[in-house]
Amino acid sequence: MQTAKQKNSSLDRVLIQIFLIGNAIIMLYPILMMALSGFKTNAEIFTRPFGMPSSFNLDNFKVIWTQTDVPRYLINSAIVTGFSVLFLLVMGTMAAYALSRYRWRGSIMVSLFFLSGLMLPLRLAIIPLFIQLKAMGLTDNPLGLIAIYTAMSLPATVFILTGFLRSLPAELEDSARIDGASELRIMVQIMTPLISPALVIAGIYNAVPIWNDFFFPLIFIQSPEWKTLAQGLTQFFGEYSINYGVLYAGLTLAALPIVVIFIAQSRRFIAGMTAGAIK
Amino acid sequence: MAHIVMRDVQKRFGNVEVIPGASLEIKDNEFVVFVGPSGCGKSTLLRLLAGLEDLTAGAIEIDGERVDHLSPSRRGLAMVFQSYALYPHMTVRENMSYALRVARTPKAEVEAKVREAAEILQLTEYLDRKPKALSGGQRQRVAIGRAIVRDPKVFLFDEPLSNLDAKLRVQMRIEITKLHRRLKATMIYVTHDQIEAMTMADKIVVLNEGRIEQMGAPLDLYNDPDNKFVAGFIGSPAMNFFDGTVTARDDAALTVELSDKTKVVYPCANPGQAGVGDAVTLGVRPENFHFDGGDEPAIKGEVYAVERLGGETYLYLQSTAGHETVVHAVGDHEVAVGDQVAVNFNPARNHLFDPQGRTIR
Ligand SMILES: Nc1ncnc2c1ncn2[C@@H]1O[C@H](COP(=O)(O)OP(=O)(O)OP(=O)(O)O)[C@@H](O)[C@H]1O
Ligand SMILES: [Mg+2]
C-alpha cells in the first residue's frame, strides 16, 4: 500500500523533472545559440548554424570593444538602470514602509494612488511627459530617463514591498523601540534587512524592462553619447548586418549583465518568490 | 530600584474601552503577576507601562517621576515578548547588544555586559549563532538576556513561556525566579498559567474586562477571594459553584438551602450582607470535598468521569441539582463511572457570594 503510493509519487517526480528540464531547454536554447554564435565567423554561421564554434576566440568581442560604440551604450545603460533601481528601491521601501507599518489619515488614498499607477500605461501620457521634461530641461539627459523609470516602477515596487513588510511581526518593531531605536533606524536596521528577498525581486523585476527599454530613450535621447543599449543596438544592427558573428557577440554582451545579476541573486530571488509558500 | 504607580490609567482604542480605569502600585523589587481571561487587557496594561501605547487618561510614575510622556527606551524598562521578537538577521551577540549599541555605549563595556548576561543564562557558546539555529528555550533565554544587558529598573514579561513545552516551562520558571532574586529588579509578568502565577508572584493582580478585580499575595487570593470572579479564576481545577437561597439568618451565620434541598449553615462575620430569600452562590473548591464527613453537608451525584492517579483522584459528578462538580480527593478511591456518590464539605472553609457576586465574609 505504502510502497505503491511512494512509487506513484516518485513517478510524479520524474514527470515533473522531465517537464522542467524540457522547459529549461526551450528557454535556454536560444540564449545559448546566441552566445555560441558570438564566437563564430560569418562563414561558420552559414555553414553550421546549430553547431559548436570551431574555436572560442574573442575576435568578435574585440571588434565590438574597439570598433563600435557598444561599450559606451553599455555604460550608459548601466548608469541609467543602476540609478533607477537604486532610487526606486529606496523610495519604494520608504513609501511601502509608511503604508504598511503606520496607520495615518489618508494612507488608503495614497495606497490607491500607487495602485492606480499599476493600471495606467505611462506610454499613453508620452506627450505631456515630453512637454514636462522639456520644461524641466531633462530631455536628452540620462537624469530624465532615470526620473521616468523610477516613477514608472514605483507602483509595482510599492505593491511588492508592502506585502512583505506587512507580514513582519509588530513585536519586532516594539522590541526595537524599547531598545531605543528611532523610527528611521528601525526601518533601516531592523525591518529592511528582513525583506531583502523582496528587494531583490523588486530590483530584478524592474531592472529587466528598464535595461531593455527602447521606447523612452528613443524619444528623449538624441545625442549619441547618451544613447542606451537597446537604442544603440539598432544602429549597430544597420552597420553590421553583414557580420552576424559580431552582431551576436553584441547581443550577448547586452544580455550579460542582467543574467549575471540574476544568477548572483537567484537564491534570494527564489527565497522571495516562495516566501508565502513555506509559512 | 523602581516603585511604580499607575493612577486611574485608561485606554480606549477608537470607541472600544479596553481599560476603563486601573490604579495600581508596585513596590520596588516586587514580582507582580497579571492574570485574567483572554482579552481582558493584560497585554494592553503592560504596553501602556512600556510606552508602546499612549494613555487615554491617567498617569504613570516610576520612582515618583511621571513617565507617561517619555519614549519607551527612556522609561528604564525592558520587555520580553511572547514571540521573543529576536532580530532574525542578527547573531545572539548582536541581538543582546543592540540596545547598548544604539545608545553608543563604549565597545568594551558592551562586550563585558553581553558576556556577563550570556554567562548568567548559559548562552556563551551560542553568541555567534543566529536565532534560527537555536531551540525554543535558548531563544527565550536570548530574549531575557537582551533585557538583562540593559540593566533595566523594571522587567516586563508578556506570557514569555507559553511557546515552550511543559518541561522547559518548569525549568524556565525556576530560572526567572532565580534571576529575580539575583538582579533585585521589579518584575511584572503576564501569564495564563495558574502554576506560574501562584509560584512566582509576590503579588497577583486579577484583571477582568480591563478592571482590577483584586490584588494580593497568591494564597490570600486563593483563601480569601473578594468576589466570585476571583474565586473562580484562581485555583485549578476551578471552584465549584452551587446556586442556593438564604432561608435563615442569625448574627453569626446564614443558612442556605441549595437547589437540591441540602441545607448548609455558613458561618460569617457580616451576615447582614444578604437577606432571607436572597439568591446566593456557594463556592466549594474541589480539594475541599472529602468522603468521610460524618454529618457535614454533602453533594450527591452520579460520577461521569474518574481520573485515578494513585496519589490523588479526580471525580467529575453530575449533581442531583444538575451542577457539574469536580472533586479532588487525596489518595486513591475505588470509584467507577456510573456510581452514585455523596461528597462532604466543611461549610466553614467555603465561600458564599451575594447576588452581586461579592464575597459574604
Ligand atoms: N490596537 C488595538 N486596537 C483595537 N483593539 C485592541 C487593540 N489592541 C488590543 N485591543 C483589544 O483590547 C482588548 C485587550 O487586549 P489585550 O491584548 O490587552 O488582551 P490580553 O489580556 O493580553 O489577552 P491575551 O490573554 O489573549 O493575550 C481586546 O479585546 C483586544 O481586542
Ligand atoms: Mg496578551
Task: Offer a quick outline of the entry.
The complex is a heterodimer of chains A (279) and B (361). In chain A, helix 4 runs antiparallel to helix 12, helix 8 (170-178) crosses helix 9 (183-194) and helix 10 packs antiparallel against helix 13 (244-273).
CATH topology of the largest domain in chain B: Rossmann fold
β-sheet strand percentage of chain A: under 5%
- Largest interface: chains, residues each: A-B, 15 and 24 residues
CATH architecture group name of the domain at 68-236 in chain A? Orthogonal Bundle
pLDDT < 50 stretches of chain A: none
Quaternary assembly: heterodimer
Give me the CATH superfamily of the domain at 68-236 in chain A. Answer: MetI-like
Domains of chain B, number = 2
> How far apart lie the N and C ends of chain B?
37 Å
CATH architecture assignment of the largest domain in chain B: 3-Layer(aba) Sandwich
Kindly name the structural category of chain B.
alpha+beta
What's the layout of helices and strands?
The complex is a heterodimer of chains A (279) and B (361).
Chain A: H1 2-37, H2 42-47, H3 59-67, H4 70-101, H5 107-119, H6 126-135, H7 142-166, H8 170-178, H9 183-194, H10 196-212, H11 215-220, H12 229-239, H13 244-273
Helix pairs in contact in A: 1-13, 3-13, 4-7, 4-10, 4-12, 5-7, 7-10, 8-9, 10-13, 12-13
Chain B: E1 4-13, E2 16-26, E3 31-35, H1 42-50, E4 57-62, E5 65-66, E6 77-80, H2 92-102, H3 107-120, H4 136-149, E7 154-158, H5 166-183, E8 186-190, H6 194-200, E9 203-208, E10 211-216, H7 218-223, H8 228-233, E11 240-249, E12 253-258, E13 263-267, E14 279-284, E15 289-290, E16 298-308, E17 312-319, E18 324-330, E19 340-345, E20 351-353, E21 359-360
Parallel strand pairs in B: 3-8, 3-9, 6-7, 7-8
Antiparallel strand pairs in B: 1-2, 1-4, 4-5, 9-10, 11-12, 11-14, 12-13, 14-20, 15-19, 16-17, 16-19, 17-18, 20-21
The complex binds adenosine-5'-triphosphate (ATP) and magnesium ion.
Magnesium ion is lined by residues 42-43, 158 of chain B.
GO molecular function, one term (chain B): ATP binding
Keywords (chain B): ATP-binding, Nucleotide-binding, Transport
Family (chain B): Belongs to the ABC transporter superfamily.
